[in-house]
Amino acid sequence: MPDRKHKKKRPGSLARQSGSPGALPGTLCVEPGSAPPEIRITAYGKEDFLETTVQDVAQIRPLLDQWPVVWVDVEGFGDGTTLRALSTLFDIHLLALEDVVLVHQRPKAELYGDRVFFITRMAQVRQDLETEQVSFFLGKHFVLTFQQGAPGDSFDRVRHHIRANAGILRSSGADYLCYSLIDAVIDQFFPVLEHLGDRLEALETEALARPSLDTVSRVHAIKGQLLSLRRIVWPMREALQTVLREPASVFTAETRIYLRDCHDNLLQIMDLVETYRELAAGLTDLYLSSSSNRMNEVMKVLTIIATIFMPLSFLASLYGMNFDPEASPWNMPELRSHWGYPALLAVMALIALGMVLSFWWNGWFKPTLPAMEIEEADGSNDSQGSTF
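Request: output the structure for the sequence above.
Response:
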């Protein structure tokens, strides 16, 4: 498949994607500069399968008559004419097609007669978390998917199973194919969460050992990514519940069992997201506490130094006063002593040494957070990382 360029949204593109105010229902608001649709066909039966790409929507009609199950994967929304032709061929409601093009939809499931319309988002991690809207239309003998056109998707494993005739996929209907695609999207969240968990573990160690403002900014970025995942997973759970509650759905009773497993996986993902959100929130407090401890260590050292020099400064300033011993016998008679200066230095050294020993005896030189506690914290990170 040719590489597709991934274009980042410019500021304000979210508002433009919501359509023009006052536009008629079902109006397709195709974003300027979008890639033209690339239509990829995967058709199969028990004995054979076919993979091809088509340029004209009319080429899909014969395949629907020849194969038991046809999967039409459309990537890119740059041609409204092609999208409307697909809508006519598969009897897709214009309101549903409008939701396909507006790529900031909340995950949901809707029923249009004997059709099931499902919207969700795929997640993957490159440098940062990236999500892409994907829409499913399930009919009796077909599955139609729409992707924005970002590079890569979660469906390679399903394509491999079709080619290798693995499991019951090739001997099942289109509803099982739709389940397999939804399951592939859900399974992709686990490595994403594992990656975020590893980053949180590293940031926790960094917050204890050498906290910095960069640590806080990275924790804040992960908190935003976890919030994005929560906004995806929670409505996906509701969408699956909608499909499972509907008795007239095109999903068979056997496929519904697999969908319930998807629902359980979403609950597990939701638990992990909430756990990591709490951990990320705690890391900010940990950074503030660790920074405060480091500041306390610095202030303690400075306080010890200042405290030691206070009596030394007093003695130095006392004997720095300009009183004349000849004017009065009370005017610093020790200034005439032969050993006065060495004696004063010895007294000052003894005072400083005595104070250092006193501080050491009272434990002032021990760090506020011992190394043992840091090692124990690292051990707790390992136990959290074993969740996967």
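Residues 135 and 255 are 19 Å apart (CA to CA).
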